[in-house]
## 1
Amino acid sequence: MNPESRAWNEKLIGVEGGIARLDTPALVLDLDAFEYNLRAMVAIARAHGVALRPHAKTHKSVAVAKAQLEAGAIVGFCCAKLGEAEALARGGIDRILLTSPVFFASKLERLVALHARLRELSVVVDDPVQVEALAAAFSAAGRRLRVLVDVDVGSHRFGVPTVADALALARRIAAEPALELAGIQGYAGTVQHIPDYRERAAAAAPAAARLAEIRDALRAEHLPCPIVTGAGTGTHEIDAKSGVFTDLQVGSYAFMDVEYLDCALTDDGTARFRPALEVWTRVVSRHHPGFVTTDAGIKCFATDGPPPRVAAGAPEGARYRMFGDQFGRLELPPGAPNPPLGAIVRCIVPHCDPTINLWDHLLCRRGETLEAIWAIEGRGAVA
């Protein structure tokens, strides 16, 4: 959001009905739906005796993280990249787990500095070389770094592939005075979006079984394993019920998106979470029957998944497509009149994590009133 656009929108904060006057395109968060989602996830976690460690890759925002803390995410946050963690730390978030390995001199120097400012920092490893590098970097830190063994449970992106490898790596960590063996991580990312609940549960079961096997093997060798972390929005209930995980790395539940709305997240098909994140766009041209042009294109939406879903502002059956970098195409059902110029069209985002990374701010509404503008401090934190 450029300064002029933000200045216009800031003047609308607290103005009853002011949401209709937003400068668009805008990334809008429905606070009622967002807060409902936070409460719903906390209730599930408490019912099954697990903790929440929400993944900040979804929102990259200090304000969102603080709302999650207030709602009950008591064990801290996950970050995919060091830059995300640094952004949260600058905003006062002080318990962070980095869920991908950190390596190379520049990253290690930043990691030591981050460790010094946080109450608790944890990292994952999947290679002995990483353990050696961390041990050397933190030898003079004065406080041990918490380290988890990352386990490959099917994605093949990171993680040790076998129980033997996990045990060997855990022994290496435990032998280093500068490091503290804190447990294991396993994220079954490839199963999160399987649409059918029971098919997803069946696909997730081997991941939980592998983690349980490694946990038990560590304990048999009297190696500590206080944390077994992983899961995601797609498997939150499945993994909570498994009895294996100590905490859940859920992320998208806070906002929801088209990808997750197309998944049954409960066994009976009821919707546990509500779509809270939308891009609001206006009609800017209407010369042709059957479609109009809007002011939100590729630069406003992630394009790695389904198209945005029209939530309001257009006839039922209308579909949204990209019409270039800056513009969108709202395709209307047969016989529907073109909406007027300036009409607001509300679109549920396709994939919330990369969509968030395209924006500087969240415009937070409660009903028809703009309540706040929250910064997305970790936007662009790819390193």
## 2
Amino acid sequence: MKILFLVPPETVTIESSVPKMLEGGKGFYPKLGLMYVASYYEKATGNTPVFIDCPPEKYSMEEMLQKIREVKPDLIGMSIMTFNLLDAMEAAKEIKREHPNIKICLGGPHVNLYPKETLGLPEIDYVVFGEGEPIFTKLAITLEYEGAKTEKLSKINGLGWKQDDQININPASTELLDLNELPFPARHLVDVSRYEHIIGEGQQFFTMQATRGCPAACTFCDIRKTKFRERSPENVVREIEELVAMGVDDLFFVDDTITINKKNLIETCNLMVKRGLKINYKISARVDTVSPELLAALKRSGCYRIHYGIESATQRHLLYLEKGQTSDKVLRAAKWTREAGIGYFAYMMIGIPTETKEEMFKTVDFAKKLKPDYAQFSICTPYPKTELYFRMLKDGILPSDHWQDFAENPRADFKIQFFNQDFTDLELRELQDECHARFYRSPTYLMKQVFKVKSWADFTAKARMGTKILTTRMRA
């Protein structure tokens, strides 16, 4: 049985709450989740699948179809978020038009939220929801050796399937994987050199993941209060060694909050130093999960930037978002991070329900006070099935369950909406542009960046991003 893992071309991706000027041209991130599924399948079966990642390869839809003609797969697996559901559906439609017998299976964050609705879409044969590595592999093995028999498919927890156009959704899988037992992502199936990020510190960029889950309660996050699991320091460092051997010198840990267990992370950092690994890397963290000792260990082992979710300068908004932090904790973490010699990225949020324009600009002033390397001001958005979404539905801020409508009937003219009672969507976009301009136009910030430029490539990347910010504001 021939298996193809596919990342479709980006054709009709939905706009997010991040401004277009910062979304475009940021580089290409590897689809790590799908690479994990590919490696798990490969290890379990001994069969080598094919992996086609269209965006970094710059494949058009026709070029994707040509590759599929060459591979002749029996089953195609795609991992999707709500934002690229339309891309996946467009690809599935074109594939089925030419190859009606190829089976298509979708998994990923969107399917976890809407398994029945996704399976109800006409070109989709199977969906997997939950941790997809073992579920997809069981499906592939079953189809190869048993065929699409009802009694066999019905035993695979976490699987949705069609039989004579009848939708069947099996019980969810309660199995939580031992992360130390997972094979490393199937990077050998892709061209590593195709992946890049414009504000990195090395020549070759890639991603990895040391933990899954986050116990924090942020209402805007889809993994709110999920079980936190981590890999051992030895397991993590072995993967880093493989990456270094592949020429990777700029690494991004995509974990939501890798710093939950400080002791384990410090041991990982110390082991990296002991093994003599030379690599630049960045992480994401909460301000209340760092300490001077941890930051010193991160710096020694090559960490050059931390992405902090700060959100707002106003305490009542932090309480509304159940962020679980205060401005004092933010200031303390920023001070410790600067003293450790690590840069940081501040994620801020505007348009929180009841927030005034003055409070938004207060958040900008707070960001400037923190002196991060970069700041991003997203617009508070009720994303699918988050606590914020349910709260806004209950409070009558949302007139209807519009994400449910989109999941059932995805359409190209769908636009993300912020549902703010005090500002229109256009006004929020204009305020977002103004916030970025106020932050990046600061003379103090500009001089700081001039002195930090390390190379011509670094200069052109930062200049390109800065030009987008300023010209967008001038057009507004």
## 3
Amino acid sequence: MGMKTKKTLGNTITYIVLIIISIIWLFPFVCLFLQSLRSYNEGGGGMVEYLLPKQFSLDSYKFLFSQDSQFVRWYLNTLVIAAFVAVLQTIIVLCVSYALSRMRFKGRTFLMRFWLILGMFPGFLTMICLYFLLKQFGLTQQGAIPGLILISVASSGMGYYVTKGYFDTIPKALDEAARIDGASRARVFLTMIIPMSKPIIIYAALVAFMAPWCDYIFASYVAFGYSDSYNVAVAMQRWVWTNDYQGYFTRFCAGGMLVAVPITILFICLQKYYVEGVTGGAVKG
């Protein structure tokens, strides 16, 4: 068997494996989309009838935007939380990462190691403590939205690892030259480092946006039964807990499709910068 034949055979096998993996990965999303188009009153049947509705309908999507549903409010709640967290958390992460990358001060190494160890513990271990703390300031139930923003932003500095690694790849000679010319550290950071760090900024913003957008545990705990403060994850979970499971399941699927739209658009538009940010930040730790 010649080298060219081996290469062709290897590529063929690789493509077949990738196609199979893609089908497996896309199958749940296709099912979710098909179920969102199922008529509200259509009953179940065999496997084929369940996967492929007998008649397609937009009733579930119409319900989401009707007066009988609070889906628009829940969607806006989630969008507000995710947007504020993305902006504030990105600013904090950039500032902390720049300080740890460029400055040398007493306790720096200990602080980095302490944050690294502390970040290994899952955040939900502190749920009870955080709930009672937020309750003292009126940031639960009616005030759940600012409370969730505060929870996500408060500890964001500990996520400096990838961003600091990216800053480490930028030559420090640029900082030193600017400092000799009289520029302050803030000016160096804002006018030199930030313009050169577009990939890592986009990476940090995407990661910050995704966390509250998909959050269920903290959101359900802080809102605690006050429906006006629900995000879409909590609200849609309440739907599938109702007695009318068959009807609300189609609405759940329709809501899931709409929830996936912003994340999908962001990743499609910013995929190039996202990959550059991850690979650039992984070069040095």
